[in-house]
Amino acid sequence: MRAPAPSRIIRRQALVLAAVVSLGAGLLAGCADDGDNESDTSDGGGGGTTTLTLGLFGAMGFKEAGLYDEYMKLHPDITIKENVTERNENYYPALVNHLTTGSGLMDIQAVEVGNIAEVVNTQSEKLLDLSEYGKESDFLEWKWQQATTMDGATIGLGTDVGPMAICYRKDLFEAAGLPSEREEVGKLWAGSWDRFVEVGRQYQDRAPDETTFLDSPGGLIQAILGSETERFYDSSGEVVYKTNPAVKDAFDLTARAAEEGLVGNQTQFQPAWDTTIANSRFAAMSCPPWMLGYIKGKSQPEAAGKWDVAAAPRAGNWGGSFLAVPKSGKNAEAAAELAAWLTAPEQQAKLFDVQGSFPSAPAAYEMPEVRDATNEMTGDAPIGTLFAEAAKSSPVQVIGPKDQIIQQGLTDNGVILVAQGKSAQEAWETAVKTIDNNLDK
What we know:
Layout: E1 39-43, E2 50-57, H1 67-74, E3 78-85, H2 88-101, E4 108-112, H3 113-123, H4 141-146, E5 157-163, E6 165-169, H5 170-175, H6 182-189, H7 193-205, E7 212-214, H8 217-226, H9 245-259, H10 271-278, E8 282-287, H11 289-298, E9 307-311, E10 317-324, H12 332-342, H13 345-355, E11 358-359, H14 368-371, H15 383-393, H16 403-419, H17 424-440
């Protein structure tokens, strides 16, 4: 469950956002994912006698941040190569097939957060327990748990997370008579998504022409559900999205916002939605760190500095990935050591500095690359500190094997229909039918 095409964000003070990277459509993620469907094999260089290969999706940034070169200097006997499939929807089915057949696997394989529960539940016996290599104390508790089996084996080390905030246009808030200073803005809706929607009503009453409070219904329901501990599955692994009050409440609140015209009527990460960013057609949006890159990539130059970042009503997460090591690899131990090094706090801070992937290691939050980070679009907003607080406060969330299918059904086949004129009941029924059909496949 990621979103396509955020830009690579250079996060240190006095540095600006660089080239555009991407996030795969309909998925959650902190690293990037876009482009064609073909794989790209890159040699990290080096002349070592042992070659370690990584199977990745999107622009995860290890090579771009110079981490391969640094590791090979530390380990002259190692050569690192990566094989990159741009879109996770093409990468993941192939990964499952390789794990099932035991062939075609890289020494290290990336796993997106929307797929981690399925991998933990169905493929863990094929993967090395990395708790012997990575340090649990280095990671956010909930991140470590996402890749840990019932019997305590941790089959993936977290690369990044997507702590949620609200990005907003200071000029549009001021034009609508709302506070624009980030602490005051956060107080408007602190603790309640209902209060958040009420602020939207206040905005819409005095909104500049042709603008809405929020960009899309999909972004709103994603943020609300991202702040819940239990969403689509319960702790026993049963699908409960139709009976969980938190899901229906999130759907209904989003539907009301859509009925009242508080949100745009576009699907996120589609060309028409991109245009609403370029033309400043909305005042706020749900905003994990990687979304800042997307804002930069789609905005007009004059929008720089007009955005700011406030705390979300409730802390939540949208995105993240893991590195896993197949047991069958002939260099499994060396691969596990590399995976642990790539996901250590120091390397996560460097990756954030170049790629904008927010660390899953709290120790990185005190490093200057994160602590002192700012962003061209949001001026002097202390984004590293703001997102770190959200990451530390995010709930330990129950992740199910088909979360991606359910989330996408609720957004792309559900709440968007209300923004386009359907009733909330019609939209819910369509979403449920679509989701159940896909779960049965």
